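Posting for a labmate who doesn't have an account.
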Amino acid sequence: MLFELNSQTAGPGVVRLVDRSELLSEKIRDDPPSSDVIRAARVLVEYYNGIHGFMAGHVAEAFRILREARKECKLRFLSFPANIVSTGLRGLITKLLRDGHFNVVITTCGTLDHDIAKALTNNGYYKGVFDADDSFLEELKIHRLGNIFIPVENYGPTIERFVSELIEKVSSSGNTRIAGYELLWKAGEMIKDTNSILRAAWERKIPIIVPGFYDGSFGTNVYIYSRIKGLTIDLALDQKLLDDLVFENANEKSMALIVGGGISKHHTIWWNQFKGGLDYVVYVTTAVEYDGSLSGARPKEAISWGKVKRHAKQTVVYGDATIILPLICSAFYEE
């Protein structure tokens, strides 16, 4: 089937026809950053420190906060939305977990969708463009997420097959009730892709908490197949785990790297209020605070709610996470 590109993509006054295989020609790469990339990022952060204005200084401050927090904090939260997992940042997130820099993850259901879909399709997500004609993409059975193209067959059907096998495996072992995070460990155990977030979390026994568990393909299919098999996904057990972690470590310091906003951000700061607030926090966002949104609220606002300590070391970096995270996360690696 042929595809008519938007004129902004093809160039002024040019209409070009391509087939589906041409659109799906270059895969997204999930390779974790090499030691050379990490060293280069640290050099660039130091350069930004000298530049200082305007967000450059915030990048350098985030680097310093994360470097200190990694040494000082027993509880280390990583919070992020699903969209960045569709990008090559998936490899960086996996590396951070596998290397033990975080011990609690709070995210959204789409993270599970993208991680599983990539793992089972040999990273079958492709470089696309923002300006594509989405009506034609729909005809070609290609999903668009920003400037990323995802073949329909690499997403929903792949996730459904995986969930069906997962629920069959869990229920056949005699389980009738399981926590959400435990189910995700079982999922990680089934995945062989070394760049998988779920697999790294299973290897390190890092709980992945998904407050909006059913808000995605993975969750919806879990709902359907678990009902068929008589398996209960007890999400109250996920909350109990957070309860235990927070209250058992009430006198320990906690940190959070919070990417984006929404439910994963709020769940992270919400639970930390029960231990008096976060001691270290870095926000990375493109949202603004003037509309009163949680996503745009700065760390200083969370102080008034007791979710961030009054004297916490904190900063917010405004910018695209795909650019910011490789820079500030180099703080976890020594020269």
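Reply:
Got it, the structure tokens are right above this. Residues 41-122+190-213+235-332 form a domain with the Deoxyhypusine Synthase fold (CATH 3.40.910.10).
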